[in-house]
Amino acid sequence: MAKKKSAGNxxxxxxxxxxxxDPSSLFxxxxxxxxxxxxxxxxxxxxxxxxxxxxxNARQTSRNLEEIVGAGLGNLEDxxxxxxxxxxxxxxxxxxxxxxxxxxxxxxxxxxxxxxxxGVVLALKKKHPEREVVLVSKDINIRIKARALNVxxxxxxxDKVLEDTELLYSxxxxxxxxFWDKHSKDMESWQDAGRMFYRITGPLCRSLxxxxxxFYAFEKPFEAIVRSIEGNTAVLEIIKDFxxxxxxxxxxxxxxxxxxxxxxxxxxxxxxxxxxxxxxxSGKTLLTLASALTQTLDKKIYSEIIMTRVTVPVGEDxxxxxxxxxxxxxxxMGALEDNLDVLNKSDDDAGDWGRAATxxxxxxxxxxxxxxxxxxxxxxxxxxIIDEAQNLTPKQMKTLITRAGPGTKVVCLGNIAQIDTPYxxxxxxxxTYVVDRFKGWGHNGHITLMRGERSRLADFASEIx
Length: 465
Known about the structure:
The protein is of the alpha/beta class. Helices cover 31% and strands 19% of the residues. It is built from 14 helices and 18 strands. It has a six-stranded mixed beta sheet with strand order 3-4-2-1-5-6, sandwiched between helices. Strands 7-10-11-12-9-8 form a six-stranded mixed beta sheet. The longest helix is centred in the N-terminal third of the chain and has 19 residues, at 53-71.
């Protein structure tokens, strides 16, 4: 590394898992330089075979590396420019390990790949005392070892949508007690097709988002959805009250405010994409299935319901289970079976024969699909439910949502506190990604369900355990 750099320019040593998690990470370090130890390239090579997401990313990383190294035909010791393929913001250089380094670490077993990477970082710190050398890895254990050796180590944060998931858009806003004092001047109200609208003007309107729910919980409670915003003026529509039994959807009435908001989104044909977040037992799957059945069987808006979920480990073959794709997916679909049992019992007058007939009819309209065979498909007039969506990466989420053709509604359900996919965190999950990117779009709705509604036992257990 002949060229001296300014002290503010860092040297990032990348662990293999960063490259296999995000092949574009090579172009994400702006003006800083990247260093790849030889063992990282070896590990990339070992992981390139197969059809898993990791293998695809390893191959894409190798292609990116070839383009970078091929573009800088000069001396590798001077580094290769990263500003290729239109990545003008990446002004740093890529350095590959071109010579053997003395990285004896008496505390650690030398042949393990992680320990070799740590040795390279220590050797670079000695070689370039004037520069800040930082190890970047998605592996918690190597970061702990690095700190024990006094080596700066960081997680790879670039794909994080939010630093803190507490800041994630909840889809609702509580109005302050003085709301009407400040916003009722020049207020207009009118009715259209049986729906009640208010046009309000005031300082709070600027902070609202389209299809965000607002509620006033003081004297004369009020619940509405934001339909349009222009500067300091917003149009609010009074929502339908699904907590009343007469408005029940497939026999299911909302049990709390958030469930009521969720049913308003699920039953609105103008909203194409709905995301529901919530803890276990908050009613995500039940509400979604109830509204899907009503709109498919009674209103005939959609031709069928398609339900899919991540079979963790994600992207792997769904195993040597006997039967068709539907039968292979059956063990993963316990939640669907449980909720269908509840929905079938809601009709007391039908009797056993009637219920059995309804169950058969429902079965013909619900298709269970594996995520692995989604690429290239287009769904027309379908109600697509993506369960356990927190286990999807942003890239997989994009692949799924772009399957939607005309007349299709996509509903993503998940709980970002229960992520099973390795290297995905609450901040980088595909579910967090879509909630953040879709907010404010006119055909999107999102609700975070706060309360579990399973049973007093489940509620007590979630609090106390």
